[in-house]
Design goal:
It contains two helices and eleven strands; from the N terminus they run βββαββββββββα. Bound molecules: zinc ion (2 copies). One zinc ion binds next to helix 1.
């Protein structure tokens, strides 16, 4: 349990891997890239960017999946659900697949990326859309806007 009392648990399809987050996400996202389409077998991925210090695997031993490239995608070794990603060169945050949280209702995607690759019919309620990824310099403003959004 963190100092402000925020704590949420999540897990894979078979619950052999469980995790908890004890810090609020700094932003929520949908990604329409074709890689996320393949990884999710769906139209887009949903994620919550959580400080690494607020993320703990509490059960099981997730393994690397996806492309096994510089971004490390972690999956359950049994049911193969995609659980979280440790992005290359960003040690301070973990990209948790938001729908793996036991209660994902509040994780409305605030920004969406790679709309240049999205399926023509796919849409999300994201407030900010990017054809690819936002510039690195845009992140502080995006995180601040997310923290100050209605309903925060
Ligand atoms: Zn599993
Ligand atoms: Zn993607």
């Amino acid at each position: 349990m963190s100092v402000d009392g925020f704590s949420q648990d999540g897990g894979c399809r078979c619950n052999r891997v469980r995790f908890s987050i004890t810090q609020k996400p700094v932003i929520t996202m949908a990604c329409h890239c074709t890689g996320c389409q393949k990884m999710t077998s769906s139209a887009f991925s949903l994620s919550a960017l959580v400080p690494s210090s607020g993320f703990t695997v509490t059960l099981g031993d997730p393994v690397i999946g996806g492309l096994h490239g510089v971004d490390r995608h972690y999956c359950c070794p049994h049911c193969m659900s995609w659980l979280f990603t440790r992005p290359n060169d960003v040690e301070e945050f973990i990209n948790v697949r938001a729908v793996m949280l036991d209660d994902a209702n509040d994780y409305v995607p605030y920004m969406e990326t790679w709309t240049s690759e999205k399926l023509p019919w796919a849409s999300t309620p994201a407030v900010h859309s990017f054809a690819q990824l936002p510039a690195r310099e845009a992140f502080p403003g995006l995180l601040q806007a997310y923290a100050e959004r209605d309903g925060a």
